[in-house]
Hints:
Elements lengths: L1 H25 L15 H4 L4 H28 L2 H23 L9
Helix pairs in contact: 1-3, 3-4
Amino acid sequence: MEDKIVLIIIIASCIVPLAIFGIVFIKGRGSSLIAGFNTKSTEEQNEYDIVALCKFMGKMMFSLCFSMLFWVLSVAYELDWLFALGLVLFIGIIVFTIYYVNTGNRFRNKK
């Protein structure tokens, strides 16, 4: 029983920072926390719709938190398939995010 509680606390300690980042991003702020974007020059950053990019990243952070809730439920109810479902969702969300952000110039300012 104690092992379950410790594992749930560990997973929750990973969910909380992602939720906090999600809140920051959904408000259109925190672009300096986005990997790759923060290394661009100011001129390159100005070519992007920063608010739209941050809001999208916020939605993705909340999606990752949601998928991690399956991990907590897996531990609580001792159902391995819930962990697998959460892991597949987690990886799928990451792959989708990388693909979506880096293709189609969706977040570039229209000129």
